[in-house]
Design goal:
The chain is of the alpha/beta class. It contains eight helices and twelve strands. The chain has two domains: about 10-165, no CATH class; about 180-285, no CATH class. The chain is about 25% helix and about 15% strand. The chain is globular, with a radius of gyration of 20 Å. Bound molecules: zinc ion.
């Protein structure tokens, strides 16, 4: 099984502020998650990336071996699932011990691709009678050079030809005005140049490592010091930076809201009082 996501349209049809799901089984019956029967005969599950419309619930029927893009990242991500309907996405034992990292999987070939959730993979499955290339979600042009080039990765995976190609195209045909990565960088650079105050607030999606690193570099360029005050947001970035092997060359601060200090490898700890006169950009998590 390749991905097993939440159907958000279906979720919104039945649930809202005052009506919450009761169990993972109910979500399956309501077709918000794949039906229980969909798992019959499944040997292994591979998840391409951690957006919920692909990841779905880790409370999986039966004992199917499941490969995640990154166990460590999911574990931190899942700390925000405790309240509200997302609690039904937690593994039934509440432990991640039985999950594996996708790169350990033997039955599929994988290649890293650029997307707004780190890490993201495209997968190739060679069955007896058919070979399938599944792209997962992807960005054609990456905002940061730390990421893999999606098209090169897909080319590598399809070298000996494939029979079936499954492509995700969430934004195809939408009436949106797209920004290329270089337009995005130029726009932000210009904003930072014209902004004359010492305090700036920034919100990025916590899983979007590529965009977060791009913004961090632009902030450093404009002599803003990036500050994180949300532990969960900082931990996610810390672990993703380690996983991708990025070297933080400039100041990156974590200002804990409580006196309980945690060490994060890529952050320096600062206390709120020390920040007062700094030219700083404070990262606040988006609600997504
Ligand atoms: Zn996605």
């Amino acid at each position: 099984m390749l991905d097993q996501g939440v159907n958000f349209a279906q979720l919104k049809r039945f649930y809202g502020f005052s009506i919450q799901p009761d169990s993972v089984e109910e979500l399956r019956e309501m077709k918000v998650l794949p039906l229980r029967e969909a798992y019959e005969g499944v040997e292994e599950i591979y998840i391409t990336h951690l957006h919920l419309d692909h990841l779905g619930s880790l409370n999986i029927p039966g004992e199917i071996r499941t490969y995640l893009p990154s166990k460590d990242v999911v574990e931190i991500l899942s700390r925000s699932w405790w309240f509200g309907w997302k609690q039904h996405l937690l593994p039934k034992t509440l432990s991640f011990l039985n999950f594996r990292d996708l790169e350990e999987g033997k039955k599929v070939q994988h290649a890293r691709i650029s997307h707004s959730a780190f890490p993201s993979y495209a997968l190739r499955v060679d069955a007896d009678d058919v070979s399938i290339l599944y792209t997962g979600d992807l960005r054609l042009s990456a905002p940061h050079n730390i990421s893999s080039n999606s098209l090169e990765s897909l080319e590598k995976l399809s070298e000996d030809g494939v029979d079936v190609l499954i492509v995700e195209g969430t934004n195809f045909g939408r009436r949106m005005n797209y920004l290329t990565p270089s337009q995005f960088k130029e726009l932000l650079r210009e904003l930072l140049e014209r902004y004359k105050r010492k305090l700036l607030f920034i919100s990025t999606h916590p899983l979007d490592l590529e965009v977060t690193l791009t913004i961090l570099e632009l902030l450093w360029e404009s002599e803003y010091i990036p500050v994180f005050e949300n532990l969960y947001y900082a931990q996610l970035l810390d672990i993703m930076i380690n996983k991708v092997g990025y070297v933080v060359g400039e100041e990156l601060l974590f200002a804990p809201r409580t006196s309980k200090v945690r060490t994060l490898e890529n952050f320096e700890i600062a206390f709120l009082g020390e920040l007062k006169n700094l030219k700083k950009a404070v990262f606040v998590p988006s609600c997504g």
